[in-house]
Amino acid sequence: MSEINASNFKKEHGDLAPDLVGVTELTSPYFFVPPSGNTAERPSDCEPGTLRFNTDIGSLEVFRGKTIGWESIQRRDGQYLGGDSANSVTTTSTNSNRGTGTRAIFGSGENHPSSTIQFVTISTFGNAQDFGDLNQNLYWNAGSASRTRGLISGGSPGSGVDTIQFVTIASLGNAADFGNLTTGRYQLGAFSSQTRSVVAGGSGSDVMDYVTIASEGNAVDFGDLSGNCVYPFTASSTTRGIIAGGGTPSVKNTIEFVTISTTGNVSDFGDLPNPRFEMGCQSTSATRAVFGGGKTPTTVNTMEFITMASTGNAIDFGDLTRTTYQVPSGVVSSPTRGLACGGYPSPNLVIDAFEIATTGDSVDFGDAAASANSGYALSSGHGGL
């Protein structure tokens, strides 16, 4: 084993740092400064395991190979977003909290209205597992979440319902009653910050409702969309909620936004490249929202992105692995990775993954445990948190 004893280890001159062969231990009580740079300066051809500090996101990141790419290393609420908590042991038991990093939770299906809730750990490629059940069979509902609690709002067993259900994201189990929307509706969208969930449109309405996620209770009026809307794309940063596209009476290409902490009507943000509804994927980092799939009315596999803190039109991001629409409604991402879970044509078990900070095509993540379309989706690490 080679050992370095130094108060400060850094490169002073030249293009190359020294090569350290074997197991290298840094025993200084001070600090080690790794290479750093912004996202655009990431090397594209490097060895798996390459480590650097990303100045755009304020986090260490590691290169996991050409298929996965760069992935940030972060810790929140006593848990590693990249995997299990520091003191936990991975287990294959279906009743365990295997993979307690950032979770995506999703379910429902129009062809087979279902109460089944599925989940994946976003940092770990693989198939979905059973989480629990809703309190009734539903489809055309929408999901939103804080870091700890997920909400499933509205939906239809044949007509619009006003129910809101919730789950504790870290604990497998069935959904419990949270409260009610101001009106029963379906084919709606939702977005959230750490404290507040907003439900938008649905059933041909322009209504927006909100609840405080930590406190069970009924929704109250937030404001209005610019017009009646079904099947919109939604996204959120810590301050803004985004509503894009949607249908009724015609398909829209508009992007609108609200300030989540302040009730009121939407303001104009920009435009999608074409009218789009029956949403595909919806994923966010702290700064960027990615939308993909949906109908124009032709079903597409294209993805676009926006920078949420500014305003402007959506820009090309890449392509999903398949054309799809009516992917479960809600924002599904970790701080760095987005997912598109299921969708039509049915049965569609495919889950796609992509790195939000880097434009490009999605890759296969795994498969859903059951057909998932026209339902809800939520995650504990999206950009609104």
| Separation, N- and C-terminal Cα atoms | 42 Å
CATH class of the largest domain reads Mainly Beta
Which structural class best describes the helix and strand composition? mainly beta
- Helix fraction? under 10%
CATH topology name of the largest domain, in short, is Neuraminidase
CATH architectural category of the largest domain: 6 Propeller
What is the 3D shape? Answer: globular
The biggest beta sheet is recorded as: 4 strands, mixed
DSSP, total strands: 33
The CATH homologous superfamily of the largest domain = Kelch-type beta propeller
- Total of domains: 2
* Main sheet strand line-up: 5-6-7-8
User: Which quaternary structure do these chains form?
Assistant: single chain
User: Which whole number gives the mean pLDDT?
Assistant: 85
Number of helices: 0
How large a portion of the residues is in β-strands, by DSSP E?
35-45%
What is the CA-based Rg, rounded?
Answer: 21 Å
User: Which consecutive residue ranges, at least 5 long each, have pLDDT under 50?
Assistant: 75-100
Keywords summarizing the entry:
385 residues; mainly beta; 4-stranded mixed β-sheet; Neuraminidase; 0% helix; globular; 2 domains; 4-stranded antiparallel β-sheet
Task: Explain the overall architecture.
By secondary structure, the protein is mainly β. It folds into 2 domains: 17-73, no CATH class; 103-379, Kelch-type beta propeller (Neuraminidase, 6 Propeller), CATH 2.120.10.80. The chain is 0% helix and 41% strand. The chain is globular, with a radius of gyration of 21 Å. It starts with a strand and ends in a 6-residue tail after the last strand.
